[in-house]
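seq as requested:
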Amino acid sequence: MAVFALNICGAPYSSQAPFSALRFARAALAAGHSIQRVFFYQEGVLVANALSCPPQDETHLTQAWQQLAEEHQLELVVCVAAALKRGIVDAKEATRHRLEHHNLADGFSLSGLGQLIDSLSHADRTVTFTS
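struct tokens:
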């Protein structure tokens, strides 16, 4: 069985990238493969926004990723530089930048590109979802 690393670069709701990655992850896990890490980069970091409220007839991608991660103990890593640029912060970064609030969804963690490089070196295959 293969070990996959997923790199999600496309924005939720304006690209298919996060939804396609979610479907791929579910299928891979159901087939017995494993996922070493899911890395959210560029516009993909918007999946980790705890304040997103999609219409009821659309998949709530933040919650869907949280549920999949909880069920399969997946690591959901968000590029810190890309997140900060797009207004996604955890409690630590909110304090550091003197912001009153934070909005990183539970189950996601901020980290640097080193985590992506680590994924590339430890996974059998890396799949990038861009648009």
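The CA atoms of residues 12 and 56 lie 15 Å apart.
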